[in-house]
Design a protein that fits this description.
- This protein has one domain.
- Helix content is 43%, strand content 20%.
- Strands 2-1-3 form a 3-stranded antiparallel sheet, with helices on one face.
- A hairpin with a 5-residue loop joins strand 1 and strand 2.
- Bound molecules: zinc ion (ZN) (2 copies).
- The site of one zinc ion has 4 residues, from strand 1.
């Protein structure tokens, strides 16, 4: 399980790299629209780790 802990307190979980990138982008777009597009795929994957 890949997890990204958003600074807002939301934990975003996914099974693989493609899914975690998609879910983080969707979370940022809905909850942090001012940051939409601020994170590249590589940056999102750097924030992700295994649980
Ligand atoms: Zn963690
Ligand atoms: Zn968030």
């Amino acid at each position: 399980m890949k997890v990204v802990h958003c600074p807002c307190g939301t934990n975003i979980e996914a099974q693989d790299d493609d899914e975690i990138v998609r879910k983080v982008e969707a979370h940022v777009a809905s909850d942090h629209p001012e940051l939409a597009g601020a994170y590249s795929r590589d940056q999102i994957l750097e924030m992700a780790h295994d649980h």
